[in-house]
Give the backbone structure.
Amino acid sequence: MKLIFHIFKKDVRHHWPEIFVPLILLAVFAWDQPRRWAGHEAANRFLTTFLNAIPFLLILAWMFLIVRVVHGESLVGDRQFWTTRPYERTKLFAAKLLTAIVFLNLPLFIAQLILLKLSFFPVLASIPGLLVIHLLLFAFLVMYGFAIGSVTSGMGQAVLAVLVVIVGLIGIGSLFAVFPSIEFTSDFLSGELGLLLLAGGIVTALVQYIFRRTLFSRLLFLGMLASVAALMLLSMSPRIINYNLPAPTAEHPVPAKFSFDRTAAFGHEPGQKYYGKNVELEFPIVVEDLAQNTVVQIHGIKLDLDLPTAQHWTSGWRSAYDSVEAGRTRTWPSVELPRAIFDPVRNGHVNARISLALKVYRVGGGTALSFDGDKLHFADGARCAIDATGRNVKCFAPLKGPAGFAIYSDSPGSECFSPSEEKEEPWAPLPASYFNFTSENPVPDPALSPVYDFDFSFSRRHVYEDLKTTVPVCPNTKFLFANLKYQYTTRTEIDLGDIKLANYLPTFPRKIVPPIKRPSLHEPSGTLSFNLLLPGAELIARR
Amino acid sequence: MNFPIETEYLTKNYGRVKALDDLTFSVAEGGVHALVGPNGAGKTTLIKILVNIFHATKGHATVLGVDSTSISGKAFASIGYVSENQQLPLWMRVGDFLKYLRLFYPTWDRKLEFALVDQLDLPVERKLKHLSRGMRTKAALASALAFRPKLIILDEPFSGLDPVVREELGQALVLAREYATTLVSSHDLAEIESFATHLTYLDAGRLRLSEDVPSIRARFREVELTLDAPAAVPENLPSNWLHASASGNILKFIDSAFQQEALQSEIFHRFGTIEHAAFNPMTIRDIFLAVAKSTRKPVKPAPLP
């Protein structure tokens, strides 16, 4: 222990500038956070940019500190004086860890406690969550710093290694852009990939500190990054996609009837032109028989075309961003198509099918809530307020946001209305709503600030249910809140038959034919949302 | 007798290059053991294997009874190692450097540290980065001697140093003979001749000679025979007669296993009565030159254009 402190004191004496810089940055970060919560902006653009860059600069400064401290007793090469002195590598490693903990984790932990106190969130109750954040920080920042420091001999090499890691991560990230299907398989291996990334830094640093085999450690480090990419590519096999998006079963059926509405299309004027390499098609899908207490997240779409040239084209699975809930009658999933495919067949007939990836959620019992003026005490201790735009609710929660939830409001109402949007296209007979599909996660959000901020707003669908508009949130607005509990994932395939693709290319301005008549709203309008949530909502509605 | 260093069939390859070739030798306890040889002879490789910086391709070595591949951490509390190109913490002052190292060594002797600082004239307040190369080597040597190591291993410590510094380092090593065995490598014999008690000569990774200095001096003689008639170099000379040459009536050679009576008898047997025989003692430097020449292939002169 004596030697550990001895090496630690030496490092502090030598590396005080590297220690000092992140401490200053952290102090600025802690000073700036409450200002951000209050919506204050910096005096000038330079200061704004600097303050926005603080988390990035902090991570950079911490990385620099760790690498420099590790380089103090470099593990690379055969000329270091310490390798032929009675240094025990376990104690050396412990001393370096101590430096990281004392000058990285500890000040951040203190700053986080102060921020929690300043934000009036419970400090003591948040400590276990904070410790989890610090464990993650330790594994993904400190240990990667150790790994990079231990396999490089100087700052030049270390910067190169950081660039390799960044390029590697960008490469892994770009796999999502090049192969959108990965998004539907990454869940399958997310545990393994997470473990691999977690192990990357820890294993490399430990192997190098124990065995001091630089080439082996470097290969190990690169190998782990390469394995992440390789695993992601391997996971794109159709078997894994099918495993991740299983076909419906009796136990897990398609939660509603999805069928193609052959009568609806976009009304094109002659001579309309389109630009760009891709076109985005939208298909009208009728939704029927969705259970009252169910919300379905449509998170993926695949379009298959049998072209007249006897060729088959598939978009592969791509992300989709829609959801259907009780009361919805249709959805308009969209998919991108290259012009090279679209142009030759746009006015001809092609046989088409779309597949939708569906996540099914059960809606829990509803709770009636209302804003207290413009303030709101929300789920999981979150505190919210209507922001200056009057259409957005800004929330703050300790450590992480709430798990999946649905909110319904009968906005715009007579006291809080938004006539301009309705003039464009009438509202659908649905309440304004907001769905958050975040899954229940015991791990806090791994961010530097312990105060997690998130927004929500109420959106209302227009009559074709293809568009929605964010409606105002007025002081004292009443709404229904319900938890969303994930049930299962499945997929469904919808045969579109022989279609003319051009009919599903949106016009600008949008014009859907045939026009739908303005529906009559339930009366009184204030009970719309209550009618959609059973059985808890009924109780509230009767009050 | 104890042997703080022993090697058996030690071989180290760098790709196709053999830096050490089946090297078996030992260093007896006490004294200053000089490891000499030309550049590229394998001295540094041998030393780095001994202190577990490199691993042997074949064979093994023990240092203070421990397998060299296991030497790390606490084992270095008994070994003082200084190398010409070692990277020291240059940001430290000399005094802080010695103070920092104190805690690592249970046997660190503060009085000896002060004596070494004094003897080597070290500026304790100056940072290592502001010292000359010679001064840095002296600081490293002080840090390697102040804990009274059982074994001192020095890799080319005198390289590029001025004669005064060499003398100071040499004196420090002579004093260290009281408690330590020293292995010191050099490519220049003159640097260590004055205080070495044993000599090991390496060439192209092979051991050519390893003996104590008095025995080497006793074993080598430059022999000059004056014959009755013009001399020619006879064929089938004994293998210990090196570099035989003839000029007029004079025949010269170096006897590498000198024993006067046996040599006289061999001369009589080969040449009968001779006019005169001189058996001249040799300097260590001349002995090594003779050994070096005898182990090298003769260089063929290039053909004239």
